[in-house]
């Protein structure tokens, strides 16, 4: 039987539901001459059996950790950002051009991998509270890595502002005709558009458009905005509920629920913290980025998830389904269960498994061990999460 090659949908024009059947002549067994890029996109949509059984709804998850360059949905974004920069002649291969980015890790890993594949250098600025697995990997990929103390976004030393400054400084520092390019994932349209052009169409294709809710956290907001816009505006699935999964300490939950980032009392505490106070990496922010704004009007609901719930869900997924994921994926799955229970029995909910647990051994999975969850066997997911049916 004909199967769509992994890159057949990705990067084509936005795929209409009825067009999917028009592609049956593309096979997996062709040689992917584009190299590692062929491993990006067209990820499987898994049924999470244990959660589907427990909720009486179908819980589906896009296995984004199977994107085969940097092993997260950021492969899609990094590829789109680089392609657009090349089209605008902001990047030219094999000239010493350097891609600069501020990232908590995943985008840096995807950019560093694709930079290698395409003849660029990568210079990544990241906060120093993120797991070492990610910065070690960046080193092995040959990127220059600056781990910097956590600072408010208003500070010139915030990791994003630093990356931007480094890009500006590039020509003066190198003076060899090479250029610096700031990837700018938080504000660049190429981010949400990557999901609009690939993740969204893939979800439609894989479900035949039967999606009652899409649940995702926001780091830059690119995933939720791009998928929401595709589902609601392009595929015209007006009734699909878009649900934000938000970790504790993030300001977005209140923004969606009440239109303001924080209550007055919380605001003062947050100003002091200046960061999302959670063990969860990759999602949860205290500002509205351009990428989140691109889909904000389409978000119908938000679910706040505690660190403990995220830890318990991660453990549950390993124990019941053999699915070993990181913290943002766990938050998404907790929120997917909560969102599913607000829908009629039999509904279909789609969420995202962002990255593998192997990237989170030293922090998130250590915490799971310290909480003693590896010793416990949970029998009821609602009880484990402390939520009512
Ligand atoms: N999960 C992980 C592990 C991430 O690194 C990110 C991005 N920072 C996300 C989820 C969120 O994706 P987005 O930036 O599209 O909101």
UniProtKB/TrEMBL annotation:
<dbReference type="GO" id="GO:0005741">
    <property type="term" value="C:mitochondrial outer membrane"/>
</dbReference>
<dbReference type="GO" id="GO:0004124">
    <property type="term" value="F:cysteine synthase activity"/>
</dbReference>
<keyword id="KW-1000">Mitochondrion outer membrane</keyword>
<protein>
    <recommendedName>
        <fullName>Cysteine synthase 2</fullName>
        <ecNumber>2.5.1.47</ecNumber>
    </recommendedName>
</protein>
<feature type="domain" description="Tryptophan synthase beta chain-like PALP">
    <location>
        <begin position="38"/>
        <end position="355"/>
    </location>
</feature>
<keyword id="KW-0496">Mitochondrion</keyword>
<keyword id="KW-0808">Transferase</keyword>
<dbReference type="InterPro" id="IPR001926">
    <property type="entry name" value="TrpB-like_PALP"/>
</dbReference>
<keyword id="KW-0812">Transmembrane</keyword>
<keyword id="KW-0472">Membrane</keyword>
<dbReference type="InterPro" id="IPR050214">
    <property type="entry name" value="Cys_Synth/Cystath_Beta-Synth"/>
</dbReference>
<dbReference type="InterPro" id="IPR001216">
    <property type="entry name" value="P-phosphate_BS"/>
</dbReference>
<dbReference type="Pfam" id="PF00291">
    <property type="entry name" value="PALP"/>
</dbReference>
<keyword id="KW-1133">Transmembrane helix</keyword>
<dbReference type="GO" id="GO:0006535">
    <property type="term" value="P:cysteine biosynthetic process from serine"/>
</dbReference>
<comment type="similarity">
    <text>Belongs to the cysteine synthase/cystathionine beta-synthase family.</text>
</comment>
<dbReference type="InterPro" id="IPR036052">
    <property type="entry name" value="TrpB-like_PALP_sf"/>
</dbReference>
